[in-house]
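I am going through a labmate's work and have reached the protein record below. What it holds is a sequence and that sequence's fold in token form. Please read both lines and tell me whether the tokens look consistent with the sequence. Do not assume that whoever made the record got everything right. Thanks in advance; the entry in question is below.
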Amino acid sequence: MAWVLLVVAGLLEVVWSVGMKYTDGFTRLWPSVATGAGIAASMVLLAQAARTLPIGTAYGVWVGIGAAGAAVAGMLLLGEPTTAARIFFVALLIAAVVGLKATSGH
């Protein structure tokens, strides 16, 4: 169950990080509220997952999912450059997340 919570927390990190783009520096109310709710929910789920998973693994996976997801969302939704190098490095992030899971012992 901790891994499910952690994956959801990572996906919420993608949501709130992309959501920040729509807050216009937290000057737009509803995007700011949604982003704040995403941050809070993501942190709560990370904390719950870290109750049973090693914190280094939990935090690394959370950050990796968020970073890779935000990069992909930026390319797909926000018109950020999609280059072979960016795709390669996102793939490395995903490989790191899988490696942390595989070697966590849980």
